[in-house]
Amino acid sequence: MRVLLVEDNRDLAAMVADHLRRAGFVVDHTPGGVEAQHMLAISTYQAMVLDLGLADGDGLNLLTALRRGGQNAGIPVIILTARDGVESKVTGLNAGADDYVVKPFSLTELEARLRAVLRRPGARQSILLQFGDLLFEPAAMSVRVSGVTLDLARKEYALLEEMIRAAPGVVIKDSIEDRLYSLDEPVTPNAVEAIVSRLRKKLAGTPTSVRIETLRGLGYRLTLGGTNAPDQ
To answer: What pTM, to 2 d.p., does this model score?
Structure first.
């Protein structure tokens, strides 16, 4: 799940980004509204965490522009702000925010609120995904095979989610890199292949009939039947 964090306090942004990444989110950070608009125009996000007091303008203006349309117009938005008055909260919610967190706040509370807005009806992450005997709940980052929970690393979760959403279609390798890594995160040449290999091994240790098929020079897809051998 990819989140855009718009916060001009770099120390706070670093703490929030680190916590959310350890919780399994892919986080892109920008300190300004202008750059945030550019990032929203070129990338797809599942949620945005937005500070209102930005150095280059009011975060409400960015929120209003977001809700006017575009590929990310409907994503959940959580406002971060020091403005704790009722009027400020009402203004933010009326502008299209899904939740409102007043500074200072607990990182675990912010994570919980983020997962909560992603579970709401209409959110992309609220859907329970299934392919074969694999059940994937995006908001909870939970994968079950025949009722047994599968223990996956965060990028393995993200990769499996992309393939389940696309199944039985193909997920292009370049798009996998875009969804699994933030804009400032280095990507080694064989990074995706390594994640696929680890995910195959974990699936092979379960009774699932789902396997990962490699389409050379193109990408990957989920199929039913066969084995999760390294050369599949």
So the answer is: 0.67
